[in-house]
Design a protein that fits this description.
Elements lengths: L2 E7 L7 H11 L5 E6 L19 H11 L3 E6 L8 H11 L12 E6 L7 H13 L11 E2 L17 H40 L1
Parallel strand pairs: 1-2, 1-3, 3-4, 4-5
The protein binds flavin mononucleotide.
Flavin mononucleotide (FMN) binds next to helix 1.
Length: 205
């Protein structure tokens, strides 16, 4: 079954390498993922005072609704100064509040970081992972995706990854993410069914 995946790209740059990686994942046809990129560039800087307002800023509502309706979240991000780009951290903060209403809670997640540098955004990748722990998102462990030495030349004219080892790794990750999301959703459904049966049996005992 195809799962709905919200891809959050941590770069606003028009020619972002990470956006192109995300586009390539959206373009895969045999991964059983229905991916779409969720925009974060219009989210006002998070301010906790907003939480108390009866009306939330419209981009907050739009972003939260889009994440809420997804079966899983894929972060695709650069590394800025060895950490999460501010724009992505802002989106994470927006989605996580008001307290107790986080749209990220229990959503399966995966993380891809791409950089022209050699360590492929390792620092950013693990800072996103750290936030996911607090957000209660089960994050796929393997394959890890620190995509190093990514350049414009890694992509074809349509802005998708050229055939080669990089595309192979990203394709492997997409398939593994499908299996991860599938395992989590099916286990939860089975547990819910078990609980319902147990409750019924108790009622009739
Ligand atoms: C403010 C800033 C900080 C950066 N810091 C890092 C870094 O810590 N590690 C790294 O590998 N690349 C770093 N870079 C280079 C980015 O990896 C590179 O610009 C990349 O193309 C950005 O991702 P994007 O193409 O998806 O926008 C930095 C770039 C900027 C603009």
């Amino acid at each position: 079954m195809a799962y709905k995946i919200a891809i959050i790209v941590g770069s606003l740059r028009k020619d972002s390498l990470n956006r192109k990686v995300a586009r390539s994942i959206c373009g895969l046809r045999d991964d059983n993922l229905d991916c779409s990129m969720i925009e974060i560039g219009d989210l006002p800087l998070y301010n906790q005072d907003y939480d108390a307002l009866p009306e939330q800023p419209a981009p907050y509502t739009r972003f939260r609704d889009q994440v809420r309706s997804a079966d899983g979240v894929l972060f695709c991000s650069p590394e800025y100064n060895r950490g999460i780009p501010g724009v992505l951290k802002n989106a994470i903060d927006v989605g996580s509040r008001p307290y107790g209403q986080s749209v990220f809670d229990r959503k399966p997640a995966a993380i891809v970081t791409a950089s022209p540098g050699s360590i492929g955004g390792f620092g950013s990748n693990h800072q996103i992972r750290q936030a996911c722990v607090f957000l209660n998102m089960p994050v796929m462990q393997q394959p890890e995706a620190y995509l190093g030495h990514v350049t414009d030349d890694s992509f074809d004219e349509s802005g998708c990854l050229k055939e080669g080892p990089l595309k192979e790794l990203v394709t492997k990750l997409a398939h593994a993410f499908h299996d991860w999301v599938d395992m989590i959703h099916r286990s939860r459904a089975a547990l819910a069914e078990d609980s319902a049966h147990a409750a019924q049996a108790k009622e009739h005992a």
